[in-house]
Amino acid sequence: MNTMSPCCSRWVAETNGELAAACVGTTVFVALFEGFRGWLPKVDKKLVKQFRAAMCESELQPLRGSLNTGDSPELVFPWHAQLLRATLYMIAFFWAYMIMLIFMIMSGPVCIACCLGAGIGFFVFHRTTAFTPEAGCCP
Fold first, then answer.
1. What is the pLDDT of residues 124-134, one digit of tens each?
2. Pairwise CA distance, residues 45 & 127, whole Å
3. I want to staple 19 with a disulfide (CB 3.0 to 4.6 A). Which of 2, 31, 85, 135 is the partner?
């Protein structure tokens, strides 16, 4: 009998098939989290682009800091955009803690499934990176 959780009798894998299903589910769960993590910066970029377009059309003053003093100005999002960003952050925070709790079950196969899911998710969802043409191709 393979147990999946030493501390909770409801979450016990009694057969090898149940343990295998738990490992596959964990791998997919963690891989999808990596996809969600990679999607968050894209949402931020889209919000910034929309906000800049709206800023150009109106006379909003969404910047903090002074352009004259050399301080880099900060973009201040409207409440609805910040609410969306905060909600997505909260989902990512909760999801990460669920992965931590799954890992802390201390079942070897499930821990390996967490690591495997992170690797697969990174491979699939993080294929691009920031590239600035000014930096050039060669060091």
1. 998 877 666 66
2. 17
3. 2
